[in-house]
Design brief:
about 375 residues; TIM Barrel; globular; 10 helices; alpha/beta
């Protein structure tokens, strides 16, 4: 999804790498030879729902994942659009989940660093880390939607440089190091509180699939969060190999951790599964497309519409939906899911982040989670 595709600090959309000190990464990994499964959320709130019901699926699915051995819950950061609009601050949502879960990881699918002071990032997530007993992880984002930068003290064009600086600053604060910041009366050195539960901050970089993004994550010693929009499954093994080779060349211990986000839905019948997802998925992709188009506008424009333009849009969405159902999602029966997951494990993927809240009704998603658990448990033998 577009919301997950911005190349983060050190891996921008042009594929260039930034010079940033290496990141200490401590990600919980499944044992060697086993594939981890987590849950990912990024609902489109086109109905603009309110009250606790708006977070019912997130809450109940997270509790289910906590009881049934899932690796983590992934939460995004989004602003000014119904697409992802329930998640303006993943730290707030993660804090609520920390109080109702005890084992599952709580990870930010994005912290858009240029929109926040580094001290606030360190403080907020240290609170969640303590509430959860050391279960948080962060994927830093440089941002991609110009509207979001209403919140930023720095220009949109400097977002990558700002993110690089923020990552290193947050790391220092996380370790308890005194850090200086500009002030009207001159630089002031501060130490952030509370002290986090974890001594090292688990860090991911998100890449849209450019090999340069994988290499940048390897250079930094960070984990990778990616997806199959804009890249093919058959290309993943080479990219992952490049990532791990780069990690080794830059002196980082261990193979790193590859997390792949995939839309996920299971039913005992493949035909029923595809029938259940087609309408919601096409609507979901359409909202993502609208947000993407809006994000590319640097000035107010009048959008012209025509019957032909609408037909072209619907045809494009139908094609995208077919591709997701056939190639880019974890859909169908549990046995089909196992086959796809085995391909991913052989490609070098360590964890599948299963995006489950793309518009299918609540009861069906919860039943799908039971079948997903059958898939997950296949990799625990």
């Amino acid at each position: 999804m577009t919301e997950h595709v911005t190349a983060l600090a050190g891996a921008d959309n042009s594929g260039t790498s930034a010079d940033v000190d290496c990141l200490a990464v401590t990600a919980r990994k499944p044992p060697i030879g086993q594939l981890g499964f987590s849950l990912s959320f990024f609902a489109n709130d086109d109905q603009q729902s309110r009250g606790p019901a708006a977070y019912r699926l997130l809450r109940e699915a997270s509790e289910y994942g906590d009881r049934n051995g899932y690796e983590a819950v992934w939460l995004p950061e989004r602003h000014f659009h119904t697409f992802g609009g329930h998640f303006p601050n993943p730290a707030v949502v993660a804090a609520s989940l920390a109080t109702i879960t005890s084992r599952i990881g709580l990870r930010a699918g994005s912290v858009v660093a240029p929109l926040h002071h580094p001290v606030r990032i360190a403080e907020e997530w240290a609170v969640v880390d303590n509430l959860s007993g050391g279960r948080i992880g962060l994927s830093f984002a440089s941002g991609w939607n110009v509207n979001d930068f209403i919140l930023a003290p720095t220009p949109f064009e400097l977002r990558r440089e700002t993110t690089n600086q923020a990552i290193e600053t947050v790391r220092r604060l996380w370790r308890g190091e005194e850090t200086s910041f500009g002030h009207d009366g001159g630089p002031r050195a501060v130490t952030s509180f509370p002290r986090p539960f974890q001594s090292d901050l688990p860090v991911w970089l998100t890449t849209s699939g450019r090999v340069e993004g994988f290499e940048a994550a390897g250079h930094l010693g960070a984990n990778v969060l990616t997806h199959l929009r804009g890249q093919e499954l058959d290309d993943l093994p080479e990219k992952i190999a490049r990532y791990r080779k780069t990690r080794q060349e830059h002196g980082h211990a261990g193979p790193g951790h590859i997390t792949l986000m995939m839309h996920t839905y299971f039913h005992e019948s493949r035909a029923r599964a595809l029938a259940d997802i087609q309408g919601p998925l096409q609507s979901y992709l359409g909202s993502s497309l609208d947000l993407t188009q809006a994000s590319t506008r640097r000035a107010a424009v009048t959008r012209t519409t025509s019957k032909n333009a609408e037909r072209l849009r619907e045809a494009m969405l139908a094609n995208a939906c077919e591709r997701y159902m056939g190639e880019s999602g974890l859909f169908g029966t549990p046995s089909e899911g196992i086959e796809v997951a085995e391909r991913l494990a052989k490609a070098g993927v360590d964890e599948i982040a299963c995006l489950v809240d793309f518009g299918i009704e609540h009861a069906k998603v919860m039943r799908s989670l039971e079948l997903l658990t059958e898939v997950k448990n296949h990799f625990r033998h």
